[in-house]
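Run log // design_07
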């Protein structure tokens, strides 16, 4: 009998182990544990430790810091899907008097609400949350540092507000709501607000000597929704599967896909680095691969959850040191190792079970002005339209059931595509948001806006 661990080739498993071994040694982490997910199953786990004979496994808790934000974002998206709020609603509608009320729910999720990065002193990550019992204590006298909606400025207090929003609309503490609505349905039994044995201790490693200092572990109170959670490589592997595919018990595939889409204006350095931020999820283009997920850190701990939806792969890396290995890079490398050594085997091609002939006649080449485009039928009943070659405006379209299609992505997202027919039923042109696509470049027999010169195409002597 084979186990999921046996599904990766020996050479791939060794390469994964080598990568985390180098990360633990060079990053001087007391311990490091990692997991790789493929096809919704954990196919590899590995660990390195400075303690002989006592390596952690995928069931040992580490503090995950800001990966907590993604859990909070899931709760907010659930409220949206239930119709209890709209992402474009201002915060003031639900939590009046915060001083940050003009920011919308979406802006808070995407860190574009203009709020400060941190709460007022003392350093909230190393002091008890009881020092900040109210939202006003978290936000301070000057909550907004930037114009709302204008720039991406990562904000921990912003997610404290979102946690308070969840509590307001659910009438229960944030952690209770999280357990009931996310952790229990997904089977994340080892994810909690407080550490549960077995768990790792958090350490600071001296920058110039190989010695350690224990870090305090505080209850963050009002800041819990921004970074309180403890979890395991095993639980985060299951959470990664959910973030890639959705689960209707918690959040649909469409809603988690919405979370993965960039939603914040990127800073120039972010553009250069290929990074962006969605709704509670980080987005990065690295090694020709689109990666989504989130990183996390609190004194004593580093964490990364990284997903490549296209490769059907995810990786989790957890370490118990304040600074050290670049766990987001390690997680990205684990995904890359498996993707390149054992690329995803595509599903077999199969013909469509049936086809609408009125749609089939639209397939093929069309021209927008003189630019050649191709319309193709897709297996889900929709169509796609894009340039025959090279870069350009490409979009997929969803069938509306009335002979029209709505754009799903790209330039034409949300735009309506329809076939305009002549009185005899023949197709004259395609209309896409007022753009006209015809069968020949400036087809003189079609309804081309502005008309076509009656002398037709010509040369110049």
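design_07 sequence
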């Amino acid at each position: 009998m084979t186990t999921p661990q046996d599904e990766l080739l020996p050479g791939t498993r060794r390469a994964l182990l080598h990568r985390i071994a180098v990360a633990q040694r060079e990053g001087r982490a007391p311990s490091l544990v990692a997991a790789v997910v493929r096809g919704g199953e954990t196919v590899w786990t590995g660990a390195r430790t400075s303690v002989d004979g006592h390596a952690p496994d995928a069931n040992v808790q580490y503090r995950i810091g800001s990966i907590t934000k993604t859990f909070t974002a899931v709760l907010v998206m659930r409220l949206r899907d239930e119709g209890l709020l709209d992402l474009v609603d201002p915060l003031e509608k639900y939590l009046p008097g915060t001083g940050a009320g003009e920011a919308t729910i979406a802006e808070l999720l995407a860190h574009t609400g203009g709020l400060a990065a941190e709460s007022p002193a003392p350093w909230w990550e190393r002091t008890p949350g009881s020092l900040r019992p109210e939202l006003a204590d978290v936000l301070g006298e000057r909550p907004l540092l930037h114009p709302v909606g204008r720039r991406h400025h990562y904000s921990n207090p912003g997610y404290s507000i979102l946690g308070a929003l969840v509590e307001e609309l659910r009438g229960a503490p944030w952690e209770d709501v999280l357990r009931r609505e996310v952790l229990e349905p997904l089977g994340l039994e080892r994810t909690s607000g407080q550490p549960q044995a077995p768990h790792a201790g958090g350490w600071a490693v001296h920058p110039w000597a190989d010695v350690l200092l224990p870090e305090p572990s505080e209850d963050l109170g009002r800041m819990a929704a921004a970074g309180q959670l403890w979890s395991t490589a095993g639980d985060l592997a299951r959470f990664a599967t959910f973030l890639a595919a959705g689960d209707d018990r918690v959040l649909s595939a469409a809603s988690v896909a919405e979370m993965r889409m960039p939603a914040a204006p990127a800073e120039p350095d972010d553009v250069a680095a290929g990074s962006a931020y969605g709704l509670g999820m980080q987005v990065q283009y690295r090694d020709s691969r689109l990666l989504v997920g989130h990183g996390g850190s609190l004194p004593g701990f580093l964490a990364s959850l990284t997903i490549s939806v296209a490769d059907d792969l995810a990786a989790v890396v957890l370490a118990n040191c304040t600074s050290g290995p670049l766990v987001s890079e390690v997680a990205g490398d684990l995904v890359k190792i498996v993707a390149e050594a054992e690329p995803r085997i595509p599903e077999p091609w199969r013909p469509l079970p049936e086809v609408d002939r009125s749609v089939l006649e639209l397939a093929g080449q069309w021209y927008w002005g003189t630019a050649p485009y191709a319309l193709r039928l897709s297996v889900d009943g929709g169509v796609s339209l894009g340039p025959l070659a090279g870069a350009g405006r490409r979009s997929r379209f969803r069938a509306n059931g009335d002979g029209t299609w709505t754009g799903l992505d790209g330039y034409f997202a949300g735009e309506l595509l329809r076939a305009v027919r002549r009185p005899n039923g023949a197709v004259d042109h395609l209309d896409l948001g007022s753009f006209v696509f015809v069968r020949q470049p400036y087809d003189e027999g079609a309804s081309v806006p502005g008309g076509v010169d009656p002398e037709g195409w010509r040369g110049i002597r």
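Residues 1-5 have pLDDT under 50 and may be disordered.
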